[in-house]
Amino acid sequence: MTPDEYHRKFRVLDLMLSAHASLGERYRRRSIGLVLAVMALSILGATLALSDDSSVHILSVNLESSECLAILMGLFFFISISELVLDLRGRAWAHEDAARRLGRL
């Protein structure tokens, strides 16, 4: 193998390692964001369900408590299902595993 070929292979390996590490970190951050959104919506929904107020004021919009709770639970359901469908944790693990394996080379 010539020195030029060796340097080319090293550059390709370095590029792949950087790409997998970056993608793994990106998917991990997105996964954490989705989990935190689910937690926040769950807490907010429980708070609204247990409150005694008949109306809720959000950004100068007056909603009935049941309407607000229905909208919130719909959003919560959508984010929960999207977390399952997108499988960001699995993608993050796959890219981090690829980065570990390439790092050994």
Key features of this structure:
105 residues, mainly alpha, two-stranded antiparallel sheet, 3 helices, 2 strands, 8% strand, rod-shaped
Description:
The chain is mainly α and 105 residues long. 83% of the residues lie in helices and 8% in strands. The protein contains 3 helices and 2 strands, in the order H-E-E-H-H. It has helices spanning 3-50, 65-86, 88-104, and strands at 55-58, 61-64. A two-stranded antiparallel ribbon has the order 1-2. The longest helix is centred in the first third of the chain and has 48 residues, at 3-50. It is rod-shaped, with a radius of gyration of 23 Å. The relative contact order is 0.17.
Walk me through the topology.
Layout: H1 3-50, E1 55-58, E2 61-64, H2 65-86, H3 88-104
Antiparallel strand pairs: 1-2
Q: Helix/strand/pairing class, anyone?
A: mainly alpha
Most strands sheet? 2 strands, antiparallel
- What is the helix fraction of residues, given as a range? over 70%
Runs in which pLDDT lies below 50 for 5 or more consecutive residues are none
Choose one word for the global shape: rod-shaped
Topology as a string of helices (H) and strands (E) = HEEHH
Strand order of the largest sheet: 1-2
How widely separated are the two ends?
A: 17 Å
Radius of gyration: 23 Å
Number of distinct beta strands: 2
> Overall pLDDT, averaged?
86
